[in-house]
Design brief:
- The chain has 500 residues and is an alpha/beta fold.
- 36% of the residues lie in helices and 13% in strands.
- It has 15 helices and 15 strands.
- The strands form 3 sheets. The chain has an 11-stranded mixed sheet with strand order 1-3-2-6-8-7-14-15-11-9-10, with helices on both faces. The chain has a two-stranded antiparallel ribbon with strand order 4-5.
- Helix 11 crosses helix 12.
- The N terminus is likely disordered.
Length: 500
C-alpha cells in the first residue's frame, strides 16, 4: 500500500533524485520517500526519453528490473534490507556475463550470446540489492576509446552528442552522467573506466589489480575456460565502478571486492581505510604535463586550478615524477604488455589480419605482431621492468599518499570511426595529435597495478568536463577515493549536463 506520508514520486523526480548518489537513492528507498518500483519506473521512463539520442543502454531488462524492484519493496515491508544498493537502479557494461541477458561485447559473432550464469561482479551487484535495468554499449571486444560497434551502433556523449563518451565503458559513463543509472560496473586495461569518466564528468575507479574478480568478462570470448582471464586473473585488466560521487565508489568497492569463489576458501579481502582523516595531512605528488604527451591548455588549466585548491586547503603538494622513474620506458613496457594481453585471446583470423597489416608496413600491427610472435624471454624482460617499476612506486608511497596526473591530454573528442585506429588524429588547440597518445597518462596506474580514481574538476571553455586522475598506493583503494571526495568538497563534484 502507498505510504501517505511519503512525498509523491514525481515530485521527488522533479527535484532531481535521478541525479542523486546511489547511496542517496538507497536512503530515499529505506526511509520510504520513494519506493524501488517508483524509482525504477521513473528511471525506465528517463531511459525511454533520453536513450534514443545517446544509445547508452543497448539491452533493456525492464521486466526483470520491475520484478526485482517489487521484491525490494516487499522485503522492506517485512523489515528486511537486501544490501547497500537495496532497490537502486544500476547498469552493467555489455562485457560481463549476465544470466539470461544478451551479452555481446559489441562483437557480431556474439550478437545472440545468452549466458547462463552471472559474472561475479554481476552476482555481487544483485546480492547488494541493486536493480539492473540494462546493459551498456562498448566497442567491439572492448578495444577502443570510443563506444561504437556493428551490433548496436554509436553511443554519444550527453555533454555534446557530436562527441564520444569514451571507451570502452562509454555506455556506462554516458548512462550515469545522463541520470539513467545510479551506478555502473565497467572494466579497464587502457583507461576504459578512467577516460569515459573524464569525458563524461563523472567519477570512476580503476581498482588495484586483482581486487575484483574478472571471471565472466568478455574478452576473452566465451568458451576459453583455460584462459587466465576466464579464471579471473591477469597482468593488467581490472573491473571497477563508475558513479556520480566518490562515496558511491567506496561502497561499490566494498560490494565488488574480494576473491573469487575458488580463492575465497583461503583468504578474505578488506579495503584499508584512507590514510588520513584531514586533507591537511595528505602528501600529494603531481605531474600535470610532460613533453612526451603535452596536455592541451584548457584541460591543464582545470587541473591546475584543482591542484591550487588542494594547496590552499592545506594539502602538502610536490611536483615531479617519482625519483628514478622514466616515463618513456614505462610507456614502452606498458604498450608491449597490453598487446600481449590482447594477442592472447585473438582468433586465428584476427592473427592472420594482423600479420598481413604488419607486412604492409602498418606500425600498430607491427607492434601487435611482436606481441604475438616474440619469445617468452621478451615478455619476461618486460615483466621484470614492471616489477621494478612497482617497487619504485611502493617506495614513493612511503613518503607520499597519492599522485595526481591528467586522465587524458584532451577533453571529449569528436566521433572518428576511421581505420586503422592508430592512424586517427585528435584535434586540439595546439594542433592535431596521435590517437594512441591516449595511452600515455593511463600507464602509471595500469602498468603497476595501482588504484586510480578519476574525479571531475571543472569544464573547459567549450563546456566539456575535465577529470583529474588520482593514483594511490597498492591495495589502498580507499585513499585515492577519499581524496577525490575531499576535492569535491573544495571545488564541487559531479554536475549534470544540460537538458537531462
Amino acid at each position: 500500500m502507498p505510504n501517505p506520508d511519503r512525498a509523491d514520486a514525481k515530485l521527488l523526480a522533479a527535484a532531481g533524485l535521478h541525479f542523486a548518489s546511489a547511496i542517496g537513492a538507497a536512503h530515499a528507498i529505506r526511509t520510504r520517500r520513494i519506493s524501488s518500483v517508483e524509482l525504477t519506473g521513473h528511471m525506465l521512463e528517463r531511459i525511454g526519453s533520453f536513450n534514443p539520442k545517446l544509445n547508452a543502454l543497448v539491452t533493456l531488462t525492464a521486466e526483470s528490473a520491475m520484478e526485482r524492484a517489487h521484491h525490494a519493496d516487499e522485503a522492506l515491508a517485512r523489515g528486511a534490507w537486501l544490501g547497500p544498493l537495496h532497490g537502486v537502479p544500476c547498469t552493467v557494461k555489455d562485457v560481463f556475463e549476465t544470466s539470461g541477458v544478451r551479452t555481446t561485447a559489441g562483437a557480431p559473432f556474439l550478437a545472440d550470446y545468452m549466458p547462463q550464469q552471472d559474472a561475479p561482479v554481476v552476482a555481487r551487484l544483485k546480492a547488494a540489492g541493486a536493480v539492473i535495468v540494462g546493459k551498456t554499449n562498448v566497442p567491439p571486444m572492448a578495444a577502443d576509446w570510443q563506444s561504437y560497434n556493428p551490433v548496436f551502433g554509436t553511443t554519444n556523449n550527453p555533454w555534446d552528442i557530436t562527441r564520444t563518451p569514451g571507451g570502452s565503458s562509454g555506455g556506462e559513463a554516458a548512462a550515469v552522467a545522463a541520470g539513467l543509472s545510479f551506478l555502473g560496473i565497467g572494466s579497464d586495461i587502457g583507461g576504459s573506466i578512467r577516460i569515459p569518466a573524464h569525458f563524461c564528468g563523472i567519477y570512476g575507479h580503476k581498482p588495484t589489480l586483482g581486487v575484483i574478480p574478472l571471471r565472466g568478462h568478455i574478452p576473452p570470448p566465451p568458451g576459453l575456460p583455460q584462459h587466465p582471464l576466464a579464471m579471473g586473473v591477469g597482468e593488467l585488466p581490472v573491473a571497477g565502478p563508475l558513479a556520480r560521487s566518490a562515496s558511491d565508489l567506496k561502497i561499490a568497492m566494498e560490494v565488488f571486492g574480494g576473491p573469487d569463489s575458488h580463492d575465497a576458501v583461503a583468504y578474505r579481502w578488506t579495503m584499508p581505510q584512507p590514510r588520513h582523516s584531514r586533507l591537511a595531512d595528505y602528501r600529494v605528488g603531481y605531474v600535470l604535463d610532460d613533453p612526451l604527451c603535452p596536455v592541451s591548455a584548457p584541460v591543464k588549466k582545470a587541473l591546475s586550478d584543482a591542484v591550487e585548491a588542494l594547496r590552499k586547503a592545506g594539502a602538502k603538494l610536490e611536483e615531479g615524477w617519482p625519483a628514478g622513474l622514466d616515463p618513456a620506458v614505462q610507456v614502452e613496457t606498458y604498450r608491449y604488455m597490453v598487446f600481449t594481453v590482447m594477442a592472447s585471446f585473438m582468433r586465428p583470423e584476427d592473427v592472420a589480419h594482423i600479420r598481413a597489416a604488419a607486412a604492409a608496413g602498418d606500425p600498430g600491427s607491427k607492434a601487435m605482431e611482436m606481441a604475438i610472435t616474440a619469445p617468452h624471454s621478451v615478455f619476461f624482460e618486460a615483466n621484470t621492468r614492471r616489477c621494478a617499476s612497482l617497487a619504485l612506486w611502493q617506495n614513493y608511497f612511503r613518503t607520499h599518499d597519492a599522485f595526481l596526473l591528467p586522465t587524458a591530454f584532451t577533453a571529449a573528442i569528436a566521433h572518428d570511426h576511421s581505420e586503422p585506429m592508430d592512424a586517427r588524429r585528435i584535434a586540439t588547440l595546439e594542433g592535431a595529435r596521435n590517437y594512441m597518445d591516449l595511452l600515455f597518462w593511463m600507464t602509471p596506474a595500469t602498468l603497476n597495478g595501482l588504484p586510480a580514481t578519476v574525479a571531475p574538476v571543472g569544464l573547459t571553455p567549450d563546456g566539456l568536463p575535465v577529470g583529474v586522475q588520482i593514483v594511490g598506493p597498492y591495495l589502498e583503494d580507499a585513499t585515492p577515493i577519499d581524496l577525490a571526495g575531499r576535492l569535491a568538497d573544495l571545488i564541487g563534484g559531479f554536475r549534470a549536463p544540460q537538458g537531462y
